[in-house]
Amino acid sequence: MLWQRVKSVLSQKFSDHDFKLWIEPLQCVHDDAQSVELAGPDPYFCSWVRDNYLTDIQDALQDVGFTGEAIKLSVGKAIPAPPEKKQSQLRLPSMPVARSTVRTLHPRYTFPEFMVGESNALAYSACEAMANGDSALSPCLFIEAGTGLGKSHLTHAVAHHITSHSPGTRLHYVTSQQLTSEMVRSIKNNTMEQFKDKYHHQCDVLLMEDVQSLAGRTKTQAELAEALDVLMDCGKRVIFTGAVSPRNIPDIDDGVRSRLSSGLITTINPPDRKTRCLIIERKARNNKLPLSGEIIEFLADRIQGDIRRVESAIIGLKAKASLHKSVPDMDMVKEIVAGIIGQRQELSSVLIRNFVAGQFDVSIEEMQSKGRKKTIAFPRQVSMYLARKLTEEALSEIGKAFNRDHSTVVHSIRVITEAIVRSGSIRGQVEHLVERLKNQG
């Protein structure tokens, strides 16, 4: 049998200990002229064999005349390795005693469940590359994002991917507060050497959230800087998240700031209207909650920024619909939204600007820019016209929302007024926007 001949070759190459521990438990579940499939007892075992012995197995296969190329290693029912005498527990050779320390992971915070849009595409791609060990990317990544925009989702996704695809990887996932508490305990217990060893030499991937909480913690900053020097020199992967960028974290050592800024810095911005609609649709589907397109658009218009508020709205709607034994309607949705974000805000030029930007798929930055392309200028002029029509703000106040003076506002109002008279299509668009704005409550 092919596998028996391969094992005979490998037994001459490895020590008895390594052969019994890593080769003997493997079973050949399939072989033909093109491929060989081997099975190991668990994912951790398979990961270690794949990283350390697969090349030797391929060479041995060629030695016995195998001409195919595909070698598959999977988890299956395998023969357990016999324990050595006078040894209570087997441990991977050259592996440290310490193992990964991973906080409880949210089961749905995975890469497939993350809704990618323009506001977060770079952060998503960078995290996916880090999770896969892509050497083309800097080994250090900093994600800046406000509350509820997805930075924890991405770090959980990285941890999920690494623990499932490379279980032999030593991953430490902590918040800055947890790191500080661990260090304080180590100082009190006189175990700082173990603390240093864990983060210097027994860490392949470090994930740290809420880095801004390091502000003022001088000792923790010093220990982190020392650990980062070791990890980065060895090419280990490090991901930080924070509510502000490294340059804006107050009361932090310049050396630590420099290290935090040494790799790729990416920002997750609030999702645009299109992405918000997709997020709402996905979360409603996950909760088996049927929502009409009108309700999805209403929620996307009213709930902006923190995605956790979307989750709260979906949960509230599901509970209310279950109580009434009916599908959600607009009255039900408005009641739930009012409980989350309060009653409708008074219309303002800023609110109108943001709403119109979402309707025309234009960013706020573009609305405030000097750009004169029609795709930008028209939504800007419509916003100014609506702000004058629907608010009591002065022309100068309206202009501030667009980085313009009052004369530009006057010009925009005149342009849209004339366009409404000439074009039924534009009149219809403006009337539709007015109706949507008035119904925001």
Topology:
Layout: H1 2-13, H2 16-23, E1 27-31, E2 35-40, H3 43-52, H4 54-63, E3 70-75, E4 101-102, H5 121-131, E5 140-145, H6 151-165, E6 171-175, H7 176-188, H8 192-200, E7 205-209, H9 218-233, E8 237-242, H10 254-260, E9 264-268, H11 273-286, H12 293-302, H13 307-324, H14 330-341, H15 349-359, H16 364-368, H17 374-390, H18 395-400, H19 406-422, H20 424-438
Parallel strand pairs: 2-3, 4-6, 5-8, 5-9, 6-7, 7-8
Antiparallel strand pairs: 1-2
Compact overview of the structure:
The protein has helices at 2-13, 16-23, 43-52, 54-63, 121-131, 151-165, 176-188, 192-200, 218-233, 254-260, 273-286, 293-302, 307-324, 330-341, 349-359, 364-368, 374-390, 395-400, 406-422, 424-438, and strands at residues 27-31, 35-40, 70-75, 101-102, 140-145, 171-175, 205-209, 237-242, 264-268.
Describe the protein's architecture and organization:
This protein has helices at residues 2-13, 16-23, 43-52, 54-63, 121-131, 151-165, 176-188, 192-200, 218-233, 254-260, 273-286, 293-302, 307-324, 330-341, 349-359, 364-368, 374-390, 395-400, 406-422, 424-438, and strands spanning 27-31, 35-40, 70-75, 101-102, 140-145, 171-175, 205-209, 237-242, 264-268. With 441 residues, it is of the alpha/beta class. It has 4 domains: 2-75, DnaA, N-terminal domain (GMP Synthetase, Chain A, domain 3), CATH 3.30.300; 101-268, Rossmann fold (3-Layer(aba) Sandwich); 273-341, Orthogonal Bundle (Helicase, Ruva Protein, domain 3), CATH 1.10.8; 349-438, Orthogonal Bundle (Chromosomal Replication Initiator Protein Dnaa, Chain: A). The strands form 2 sheets. Strands 4-6-7-8-5-9 form a 6-stranded parallel sheet, sandwiched between helices. Strand 7, helix 9 (218-233) and strand 8 form a beta-alpha-beta unit. Mean pLDDT is 85; it is low at 78-98.
